[in-house]
């Protein structure tokens, strides 16, 4: 078993990401980009929404990431009959003592996977709102803090499938990123076949912890200190403003989306070994930050216009600052 990275040795976020990726690659194939986004979310105290058809390893990816990161992991299988108390917990009467005892729900974990979140009713979906924003829950008037780090990874089936409830705008906005997992390319699927043919029992349980909590906290500090110059700030503000002004959009990115650009771009720069953010860091995060936050105008929905196409158009239309890298590294 490999030794988890220590904060002293691996304050560099690149070491944290490399350790997680190499360990996850023992089980996953072709998941480098999703793992990078999950790592950025972990370093920025964010949450991730993963969409894909059944069977593309959405839940497995979250499980493997949690195990490699040393995070306590719980999975909540969302169904139409699950209640908010099944997520947060409740007070249970104990007959031997004649007293009520707090029974904490599965939300009390470092990494909570809300599997098929859009199969739960909106009332149950909203049970995660306070947890995701405040990192605490209120159970029958008592407010309890959640563990640190705390991260929600929700999976969902495409909204075109039957038996699903679209997430309300307030819920979607609390997810820092949304990523879509597609059916793998043939070469990757062949590699999956070969790997599981050689080891049919291979699964998340084969993943070992390679990062300790101290390393995560140290990497978070490094990411937070990454320099964000005024030109890059203006660029990300222009992107969010363009999402609000687009003719096919009724409601664009929120101020929470703007802050997601700030924190996410800093973390991405740190993962690339830079002490400063460049426009490419912002551009790379435009799709996962904006695509689930856009509320399309009625005409756009009827015309079949997709949010991903709108975000791509916005990125093409908004001109990034044309400066040398030294300018982004310099103090404002």
Q: How would you sum up this structure, described in words?
A:
- The chain has 16 helices and eleven strands.
- By secondary structure, it is of the alpha/beta class.
- It folds into two domains: 13-196, 3-Layer(aba) Sandwich (Rossmann fold), CATH 3.40.50; 227-329, Magnesium chelatase subunit I, C-Terminal domain (Helicase, Ruva Protein, domain 3).
Work out the count of structural domains: 2
CATH fold-level name of the largest domain: Rossmann fold
Query: End-to-end span in angstroms?
Result: 46 Å
Computed over alpha carbons, the radius of gyration is 21 Å
β-sheet strand percentage: 5-15%
Give the SSE order as H and E letters.
HHEHEHEEEHHEEEHEHHHEHHHEHHH
Question: How would a crystallographer describe the biggest sheet?
Answer: 5 strands, parallel
Count of extended strands: 11
| Discrete helix count | 16
- Say which CATH homologous superfamily of the largest domain is assigned: P-loop containing nucleotide triphosphate hydrolases
């Amino acid at each position: 078993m490999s030794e988890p990275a220590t904060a002293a040795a691996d304050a560099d976020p690149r070491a944290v990401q490399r350790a997680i990726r190499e360990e996850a690659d023992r089980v996953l194939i072709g998941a480098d980009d999703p793992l990078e986004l999950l790592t950025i979310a972990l370093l920025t105290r964010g949450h991730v929404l993963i969409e894909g058809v059944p069977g593309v390893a959405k839940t497995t990816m979250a499980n493997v990431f949690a195990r490699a990161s040393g995070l306590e992991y719980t999975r909540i299988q969302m169904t139409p009959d699950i209640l908010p108390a099944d997520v947060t917990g409740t007070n249970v009467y104990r007959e031997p003592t004649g007293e009520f005892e707090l029974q904490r729900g599965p939300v009390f974990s470092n990494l909570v996977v809300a599997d098929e979140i859009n199969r739960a009713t909106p009332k149950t979906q909203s049970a995660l709102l306070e947890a995701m924003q405040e990192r605490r829950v209120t159970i029958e008037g008592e407010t309890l803090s959640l563990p640190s780090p705390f991260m929600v990874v929700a999976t969902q089936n495409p909204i075109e499938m039957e038996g699903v409830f679209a997430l309300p705008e307030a819920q979607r906005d609390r997810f820092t990123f949304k990523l879509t997992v597609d059916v793998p390319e043939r070469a990757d699927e062949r590699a999956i076949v070969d790997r599981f043919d050689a080891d049919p029992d291979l699964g998340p349980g084969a993943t070992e912890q390679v990062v300790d909590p101290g390393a995560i906290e140290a990497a978070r500090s490094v990411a937070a200190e990454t320099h964000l110059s005024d030109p890059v700030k203006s660029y990300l503000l222009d992107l969010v403003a363009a999402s609000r002004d687009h003719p096919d959009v009724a409601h664009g990115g929120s101020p929470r989306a703007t802050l997601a650009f700030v924190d996410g771009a800093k973390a991405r720069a740190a993962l690339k070994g830079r002490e400063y953010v460049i426009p490419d860091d912002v551009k790379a995060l435009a799709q996962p930050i904006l695509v689930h936050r856009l509320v399309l105008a009625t005409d756009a929905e009827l015309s079949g216009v997709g949010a991903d196409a709108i975000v791509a158009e916005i990125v093409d239309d908004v001109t990034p600052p044309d400066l040398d890298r030294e300018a982004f590294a310099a103090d404002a």
